[in-house]
Amino acid sequence: MDNTEIQKQLKEKGYISEPINPALDLEKEIRRLKKEKKAVILSHFYVDGELQDIADFVGDSLQLAKEAEKTKADIIVFVGVHFMAETAKIINPGKKVLLPDLNASCSLDESAPYEKFCEFKKNYPDHKVISYINCSAALKTLTDVVCTSSNALKIVESFPEDEKIIFAPDKNLGNYINELTGRNMVLWDGSCMVHANYSYKKISLLMQKYEDAEVIAHPECEKRVLSLAKHIGSTASLLVYVQKSPVKRFIIATEIGIIHQMKKVCPDKIFIPAPCNDSPDACNSCTYMKLNTMAKLYNCLKYELPEVKLSDEVINKARKSIVRMLEISK
Ligand code: 13P
Ligand code: SF4
Predict the structure, then answer these.
(1) Which of 10, 19, 118, 227 is the most buried if burial means most Cβ atoms within 10 Å?
(2) Residue 307 C-alpha to ligand 1 middle, in angstroms?
(3) Closest ligand 2 atom to the C-alpha of 288?
(4) CATH number of the domain at 195-273, please?
(5) Looking at residue 330, what is its pLDDT?
(6) What is the CATH number of domain 108-191?
(7) Does residue 81 line the site of ligand 2, with CB under 6 A?
């Protein structure tokens, strides 16, 4: 079933048109429906705080994929973005996987359409493909091994030093791993609209203002921004770092949703969102992640829609690259 058909069904079932009774206690209703339907809620660190707090598990991409693999629940509700829900479906195809808003995409995923990547790959017939998990299921079918920000180094190093590799779709993460390993992987020209937008100049000025502050950054940031960082890592790794560090003030160069967890685990510390180039206030907020709301999550559980569906062919082809990643990152 394609997305148009799904949207049609949503409308027919009142998912889109039915107004939610404002008197409804959404949190209570979500918890009730979740129990009744034996569903598990998996939320990424970038969604709004209330959507993190209602989840059974909150984590980075790798942790969430592992949770999706081992869950015994009948339904997985992925409060994150589309490629994450697709990954859950691929590794646990027997489960119903729901995503509160099917439009929750990712600029990296969008930067690498299947047909364009097929053409690109033809130029490198003897190269292996490592794909960052932030890409479509279709792209994963063309991939040898998937990686996430937390295991990219390990995955790349699992290949012999002289192996020719295409790394897609994030050029910033690819470039960072090239520098760490001294390799020369061919990079697809994609980037994250949030992380590629942090301003080196403005962060440097903030560092002058707060001399006690440490910059910590996600590897999707540009090289210049990464050069300012004391610690570089996945969202989960950044969270662990702020807990372990004796430092009291941090400049956070990743999506602001993670600050919700940072404040929870370190209420006495100060977290300053890193400023961006074009400086609208919400620049470090991922508009795709923020499509998730409590109302959509409630409707999603109530109607069991929208459901993420993939053909058996795509599941079987894409699965190998994800299973390989999970094996290597054990
Ligand atoms: P993590 O795997 O580090 O959570 O990153 C996901 C993501 O989308 C970063 O922009
Ligand atoms: Fe994609 Fe960037 Fe949003 Fe992460 S923050 S989901 S990479 S658009």
Answers:
(1) 10
(2) 22
(3) 3
(4) 3.40.50.10800
(5) 82
(6) 3.40.50.10800
(7) yes
Angle between helices 61-70 and 312-328 (to 10 degrees): 110
Q: Which ligand is nearest to the CA of 107?
A: 2
Ligand 1 centroid from CA 19, angstroms: 33
Q: Tell me: the pLDDT tens digits for 118-142?
A: 999 999 999 999 999 999 999 999 9
Determine what percent of the chain is predicted with pLDDT higher than 90: 90
User: Cα separation of 129 and 2, whole Å?
Assistant: 27
Condensed to tens digits (0 to 9), the pLDDT of residues 230-243 reads: 999 999 999 999 99
Instruction: List the residue whose alpha carbon is closest to atom 8 of ligand 2.
Output: 106
34 CB neighbour count, 10 Å cutoff = 20
Q: Cα of 247 to ligand 1 centre, how many Å?
A: 24
Structure tokens at 51: 């959507």
- Distance of CA 80 from the midpoint of ligand 2 (Å): 10
Place of tokens 């033809």: 122
**Residue 299 is which amino acid?**
N
Mutation pick for ligand 2 pocket among 150, 289, 290 (CB with most ligand atoms within 8 Å): 289
pLDDT at 282 over 70: no
Lowest average pLDDT, out of 99-113, 179-193, 266-280, 306-320, goes to 266-280
Beta strands in 63-217 (DSSP E): 75-79, 96-98, 128-132, 145-147, 165-168, 186-187, 214-217
Q: Which amino acid is at 243?
A: Q
Question: Does pTM top 0.90 for this prediction?
Answer: yes
Q: Does domain 3-104+289-312 have CATH number 1.20.120.450?
A: no
Q: Which atom of ligand 2 is nearest to the CA of 83?
A: 6
Domain with CATH 3.40.50.10800 in the chain: 3-104+289-312, 108-191, 195-273
Q: What atom of ligand 2 comes closest to residue 44's alpha carbon? A: 6
Categorize the per-residue pLDDT at 52 as very low, low, confident or very high, splitting at 50, 70 and 90: very high
